[in-house]
Amino acid sequence: MLETDLAVTFDESTHEFVYPPAVFGPPHAEQRYLKDILHSMVDQESQGPEIVYSIAMDVGLKKDRADLLERELLFGIVAYADGSIGEEPVKSQGHIHSISKAGQMSTPEVYEIWSGEAIIYMQERVTDDPGRCYAVRAKAGEVVIVPPGWAHCTINASKNERMIFGAWCVRDFGFEYADVRAHNGLAFYPKFDAQDRIIWDKNPNYQAEKLIEKSPRQYSEFSIDSERSIYEQYEQEKERFDFVVRPDLYKEKWINYLP
Question: What does the pLDDT read at residue 107?
């Protein structure tokens, strides 16, 4: 697992995160069960792991807690099961971030993959025309930023390895599911082919033109350092991730945003 200042580990037997003495976190992880996400799958009768993913929201070094609260900034960690759900990979339901009180708009999210391999799928909107659609494949140590207002889901790209990531988000986070569910999911469905590679099927409820598959890029406009963990970067410069809480102050950076 990626070395970070937090040194949090995941207990496979209990599906709980284990925190060292200097780190705070919720006493129990929130679990997402197969029954909770089947409505977002192509085959809603699919079989898969009972616990699809485990979530710990509000994690950090105890010495940083007051600053994180003041900034309305929150760090979360999520562990995805390996395996598959029918022919589809283990993934989240897909949502849009709700409008935050801090900036009065939907907020971005900064992902950092800690172990395994992820695909962060995102599309500009959840109307019949979804706009640009991207699948960003990221390995351990790589960062992906989802912009405000875009619908997205997180996918474990491997059948054989658990995927774990950390993420910066706003403290009053919330998710909007209605439009995604009205379209039976997002514009492209991932599934495994016979060689266990991820391929994509179009969702017929959208008029999507194409899916762009790509690797993560350098987010120089937000001064992201690819050589250091995103928590360490916060430690070095406490205001570095203020754009997560106040995306309204960075509107020019979200115009024609490239994931």
Answer: 97
Is 3 a domain residue? Answer: no
CB–CB of 29/15 below 8 Å? yes
Residues written for the chain: 259
> Which SS3 state, helix, strand or coil, does residue 70 take?
helix
Question: In this predicted structure, what is the pLDDT of residue 38?
Answer: 80
Over residues 159-212, the pLDDT tens digits come to 999 999 999 999 999 999 899 989 989 999 999 999 999 999 999 999 998 999
Q: What's the structural domain count of the chain?
A: 1
Q: What is the CATH number of the domain that holds 166?
A: 2.60.120.10
The answer to whether 104 touches 248, Cβ cutoff 8 Å, is yes
- Give the C-alpha separation, 184 to 63, whole Å: 43
- C-alpha 40/C-alpha 189 separation (Å) is 10
Q: How confident is the model at residue 3 (pLDDT cuts 50, 70, 90)?
A: low
Residue 1 lies inside a defined structural domain of this protein? no
Tokens for 228, please give them. Answer: 């250091």
Which range of residues forms the domain containing residue 223? 9-254
Does residue 2 form part of some domain? no
Beta bridge partners of 53: 32, 80
